[in-house]
Amino acid sequence: MKEISQIINGKRVIVKKPELLAPAGNLEKLKVAILYGADAVFIGGKEFSLRSSASNFSLNDIQEAVTFAHLHGSKIHVTCNIILHMDNIGGLADYLRSLDKIGVDAIIVADPYIIYLAKQLNLRLEVHVSTQLSTLNTSAISFYEKMKVDRVVLGREVNGDDLREIRKNTEIDLEYFIHGAMCIHYSGRCMLSNYFSRRDANRGGCSQSCRWYYDIYENGDKLNKDQIVPFSMSSKDMALVDYIPDLIEMGIDSFKIEGRMKSLHYIATVVSTYRKLIDDYCQDPDHFIDNIKYHQEIQKAANRALCTGFFHEFPNSTCQLYNQRDEHPTQDFCVRVLNYDHQSHLAMIEQRNYFKKGDFIEFFSPYHDNIVVEVKHIYNEDKDEVDVANHPMEILYLEVDVELLENDMGRKVIVNES
Ligand code: SF4
Question: Which atom of ligand 1 is nearest to the CA of 234?
Fold first, then answer.
């Protein structure tokens, strides 16, 4: 295994920095993920991919994604993780050749035939085994190594001790989930959605039936009659903020964030928070103490309660959302900065959600600490002053004394009025 850290100028620094791998459901989110610190982004093509309802990428989109990513030193992984039926095989070889020609860095696969075919075609791109295959042990990993697979995306069900053991006993690249939604079944082995809505979770159509409300009966008696909210099987989301140092010291190669369907604000917030956390730790691991600020930042994008998944211990009832509705809106994403004029102190912005004079906006970016400003003056494109910003995507100008950067985002600060 590669050396994790070295003493440089009398100080230990991490020399094997993990890849931060972000999701993206469209080109705008992909570009933001890269600008906010992702070393690699995974996307779904229009063919042979799960998450069919996500706004998947055409080959032209993938070409644009690869060009943008490579220009910024990032990589593109494309999911080809469909479970193949007989009628899915036609066109597969040509599709893989096209991805390779475009310069895609890796494909994520779940069907053994795609692994075999990609290797037979002598493609340059890497082949990564999808989490859909629920790889949880070194023997399975050895099997994939023999198939010349380049990386294994482990199942979320691998706990911290097993992960350490797997890392010690394998050389292959390992990818591990650090953040995002969890299934209450083994990921990718769930039939609830098929049963209730004829939407196949294994073919990208999950209707999240586990999060619906249910009444439970035994021999005709309703067991949950005293509950205010009916029974639900939803899991809390996973956030491994506290375990990032452990994962870095173990030598895990790639840290994966889940959520190709998530919003721009979510991607920007989560990616930039983990970017800063990883960089801060790697720079001076022996004096790293402050996790609180990363927790606070992650909370701004969380619309569900968070837990540590399987990493620390087997998830118990405190990791579930039984009998409660726990989805809440995240802080309002209201502004994207297009540029900033130092002379006039006017920031040209794109409106993303309603705000008005007197509101406070917190601007964030991977390149500076958060900046909170009160909205004192808003101008439209004709430079006439307006009181409210209520037209989505309208170009407006805000007077801001502090320098803002292109692509900074602003979220409305929710003032507690109690
Ligand atoms: S229904 Fe729930 S547990 Fe099943 S695949 Fe969908 S999200 Fe996962």
Answer: 2
Binding pocket residue ranges, ligand 1, CB within 6 Å: 183-185, 190, 192-193, 201, 206, 208-210
- How far, in Å, from the CA of 102 to the mean position of ligand 1? 33
Which atom belonging to ligand 1 lies closest to the Cα atom of 206? 6
Q: Give the span between the Cα atoms of 310 and 319, in whole angstroms.
A: 10
Residue with CA at minimum distance from ligand 1 atom 3: 183
d(CA 331, CA 289): 27
Tell whether 257 is covered by a domain.
yes
The count of residues in the chain is 418
Q: Give the nearest ligand 1 atom to 185 CA.
A: 3
The residues, ordered by sequence, that sit 6+ positions from 125 with a Cβ below 8 Å of its Cβ are 99, 100, 104, 105, 106, 107, 118
pLDDT value at residue 320: 83
Domain boundary among 289, 319, 349: 319
Give residue-wise pLDDT tens across range 67-109.
999 999 999 999 998 888 888 888 999 999 999 999 999 999 9
Instruction: Give nearest CA residue, ligand 1 atom 6.
Output: 208
Tally of structural domains, the chain:
2
Report the distance separating Cα 372 and Cα 413, nearest Å.
8
Distance (angstroms) between ligand 1 centre and the Cα of 192 equals 7
Predicted structure pTM score = 0.93
| pLDDT attached to residue 116 | 95
CA of 242 to the centre of ligand 1 (A): 26
Q: Which residues of the chain have pLDDT under 70?
A: 50-55, 323-331, 415-418
Distance 221 CA to ligand 1 centre (A): 27
Residue 274 within any structural domain of the chain: yes
What per-residue confidence (pLDDT) applies to 328?
62
pLDDT at position 230 is: 77
The CA radius of gyration of the chain, in Å to the nearest whole number, is: 23
Ligand 1 atom nearest 211 alpha carbon: 2
pLDDT at 290: 75
What DSSP assignment string belongs to 17-46?
Answer: PPEEEEE-SSHHHHHHHHHTT-SEEEEEBS
Both 400 and 262 in one domain: the answer is: no
